[in-house]
Every structure is written in structure tokens, then in C-alpha cells.
Amino acid sequence: MERREAGDLPGYIPPMLATAAKRPPQGPGWTFEFKWDGIRAVVAVAGERWRAHSRNGNDISGGYPELAVLPELVEGRVLVLDGELVVLDAGGRPDFGLLQHRMHMRPPTPDLLAQLPVLYYPFDLLVLDGERITGAPYAERRAALAELGPAAPGRVVVPPNVEGLPADQVLEVARRHGLEGVVAKRTASRYEPGRRSPAWVKTALVQTHEVVVVGWRPGKGRRANGIGALLLAGNGPDGLRYLGDVGTGFTDRMLDELAALLAPLRIPAPAVERIPREFARGAVWVQPVTVGEVEFRNWTHDGRLRHAAWRGLRPDKEPDEVTVP
């Protein structure tokens, strides 16, 4: 197998994705990791150089200078890590809403770096000393990551994985600590780049779903001159399908960012059909290119989101990745 010399950065490896389930799998052969409320980042390191890519392959290095400690932490070895970028709240829990403020700032200002430091949680090792090890079992890759032990308080932390506990008990630990859920991983599984694999199974404690923004309705009161609710869609077998609207969960800053982002995307007619008249009345339509995420209670019988709340933009996702159940 070809080895890369120090300084020669390995190429981007699309991250392996988990399938969703209402309950984590039971029985032997599974290891559990907690589900972190952040964004995926695949980071390559070689010598004194490093580069970070988002889930969809975009170079995001300029937005997260905290990762510059990695070359020193791994003593210049040639490797690729898979993990999650997070911002912690006052209670030490990852908060996607806080991370939102860092996602569009490249480079971030000194004040923003001080107020909202980003941590990297590497949970898998894909290249070690220049050799690709994606074909090795998860247990071996995780052991190699633990031995490598890249750690810098407040910058890089290898998160725990849990073995030997029942799945429901691990999920209850996540619930008690206010985490997003758990990801079960088969200990014997290889890493499957770019594939959503049944070897990884995610169970969320709060239902979340990516959405495509297709329009917005003006608000009332102090929101009368701006966005009151977003109109949402997802990709079905016959194209875009209306999924409902969301009018809660926004901060003033989020609304300002959305207004600036959507203003140049206006179009004269909706990009999705069969929007109920009461929701379409007074709406401003936009090109279906902006992806966000909502949390919600459940799906209605006609495929709409019930009690949705906005979580934030997802620039790491492409519109064609957003599907409907």
C-alpha cells in the first residue's frame, strides 16, 4: 500500500453515514457512542499542515482555526480523522444553535473565537501514518485512535465509546445529560466512505429533519417587516413536496441572517406544488437551494411536520440530500 510522506496531505474521504432507528440495536457486537449536536468534519493532517472538509466535501478549514493544534498533537504524523465540530453551552453540552454563529464566519473574529470556541470530537481514524485503514474493523480503528490520543483541552477531545451496557441504558444516560442521542456501531464493521450503512445506527432523543426552504411569510408585531415563518419542502419520488412551515425557534440574529441569505433568491412562483392556500397567502418564494434543520414532534398523516421549531441552517448539506419519509 502506498504511503504518504509528511507534508503530503491525504485526499478527502467522504464520511460514512448512519441509518436511523427509533430504538438502538440490542445484543452483542455493538459499541455505542453519543450523538453530538454539531457538524461533521473530516480532517487530514501531515507534518505541519492540516485541512478540514465538511460532510459534502467543502473546505471549511478557514472557519475553524482551533484545529491548527492537530499537527502538534499527533507529532506531524500523516492521518485522517472523522469527527464532529461542536460548541458547548454553559452546562457543557453541545449546542447547535451556538455553533450556527461560527458556521458562516471565515475567518472568525477574535471576539467570536473567545466567546464561542469550537471543539473537535474525533471518533474515527481513517488514515494512519499514511496508510488508509478504512478496511480495518471499527474496534481496531478506535483502539488506534485511543492510542494516538490527540487531546487539547478546549480544542480537541476524543469522545467516549461505551461497551458492555444495554442499549436502552446508554440511551437513558444520553437523555439524562441532555444529549442528542446515541449511535450504535458494529465492532467488526469496516468504514464505508460516503455510504449510509446499517453497520451504524443512530437513535435521536429529539426528532430532527433537514428541510429545504422554499419561501417565507411576513411576521406580525415586531416581525411585521421581516420573516415570520419559513415554508419548507423535501425531495420525494415526484420532486419537491411541501412539508409545512416553521415559525418558532428563531433568534433575532438568525432572522437577520436568513433575510440576507434569502433576499437575492426570490422567484415569482413557488418551486413546490400543492401548498395549502392559507399557508401560501402573502408568501415570498425563493429558489430551493437553502437547507436548514428543524426539530419536531412527529409527522402528520399527510406527511407534514407537526410542532416544528427551527434549529438552524445546514450549509454542510445539499438540497438533493433532503428526502421525505
Question: How do the helices and strands line up, and which of them pair or pack?
Answer:
Layout: E1 17-20, E2 30-35, E3 39-46, E4 49-53, H1 70-73, E5 79-86, H2 96-103, H3 110-115, E6 119-128, E7 131-132, H4 138-148, E8 161-162, H5 167-176, E9 181-186, E10 196-204, E11 208-218, E12 227-236, E13 239-246, H6 252-262, E14 266-267, H7 277-280, E15 284-295, E16 298-299, E17 305-306, E18 309-313
Parallel strand pairs: 1-10
Antiparallel strand pairs: 2-8, 2-9, 3-4, 3-5, 5-6, 6-7, 9-10, 11-12, 11-15, 12-13, 14-15, 15-18, 16-17
In summary, what is this structure?
By secondary structure, the protein is of the alpha+beta class. Helices cover 17% and strands 34% of the residues. The radius of gyration is 21 Å and the shape is globular.
Explained architecture:
- It is a single chain.
- This protein folds into three domains: 16-34 and 159-205, 2-Layer Sandwich (Dna Ligase, domain 1); 37-158, DNA ligase/mRNA capping enzyme (D-amino Acid Aminotransferase, Chain A, domain 1, 2-Layer Sandwich); 208-321, Nucleic acid-binding proteins (OB fold (Dihydrolipoamide Acetyltransferase, E2P)).
- A hairpin with an 8-residue loop joins strand 11 and strand 12 (227-236).
- With 325 residues, the protein is an alpha+beta fold.
- The model is unreliable at 1-6 (pLDDT under 50).
- The chain is built from seven helices and 18 strands.
- Strands 11, 12, 13, 14, 15 and 18 form a six-stranded antiparallel sheet that branches. Strands 1-10-9-2-8 form a five-stranded mixed sheet. A five-stranded antiparallel sheet has the order 4-3-5-6-7.
- It is an enzyme of class 6 (ligase).
- InterPro entries: ATP-dep_DNA_ligase, DNA_ligase_ATP-dep_C, DNA_ligase_ATP-dep_cent, LigD_ligase_dom, NA-bd_OB-fold.
